[in-house]
Design goal:
Blueprint lengths: L1 H11 L2 H21 L3 E6 L2 H14 L13 E4 L17 H12 L7 E4 L12 E7 L7
Parallel strand pairs: 1-3, 1-4, 2-3
Keywords: Restriction system
InterPro entries: HsdR_RecA-like_helicase_dom_2, P-loop_NTPase, Type-I_R_enzyme_R_subunit
Organism: Sporosarcina limicola
Length: about 140
């Protein structure tokens, strides 16, 4: 099962696919914002893909990013350890950070409008203003 998952993750996280997915998501999200207000969540199958997707989105929409957790339109919500790669460390958060981002996401007036998640916030996370969920992971046979 791990071997199958690893092969699928490699295909899903291929550079060309990530770039195309970013183009599609950003176009759809911006078009949707013109029609109606709403926040969005992107559900990704791995932390690696989440970071690559985030980086690519920020590459085409740099004004969406902020190093400050109290600012920015887009964030990644994920856990990790100090042994994770160094370039992942800015995205790894504590429970306190996750709670802070959750409050921001639930606040209709907050500029945070797009979050990338792997497993966190998938169940029991009620955000009335969240109108869109992009799912890019198998929903069967996972934790």
């Amino acid at each position: 099962m791990k071997s199958k998952w690893s092969r699928l993750e490699a295909l899903a996280g291929a550079e060309q696919r990530v770039k195309q997915m970013v183009q599609d998501i950003v176009k759809h999200y911006e078009t949707r914002q013109e029609a109606m207000f709403g926040k969005a969540m992107i559900v990704i199958m791995s932390r690696r893909i989440a970071i690559e997707l985030y980086s690519e989105i920020v590459n085409i929409r740099p004004d969406w990013h902020s190093d400050d957790d109290d600012k920015g339109i887009i964030k990644i919500v994920m856990t990790g350890t100090s042994s994770d790669p160094e370039h992942w460390q800015p995205f790894i958060g504590t429970k306190k950070r996750s709670d802070q981002l959750a409050r921001r996401m639930k606040d209709v007036n907050d500029e945070l409008k797009l979050v990338l998640v792997r497993d966190m916030w998938l169940t029991g996370f009620d955000v009335p203003s969240m109108s869109t969920m992009y799912i890019d992971k198998p929903m069967r046979g996972i934790t």
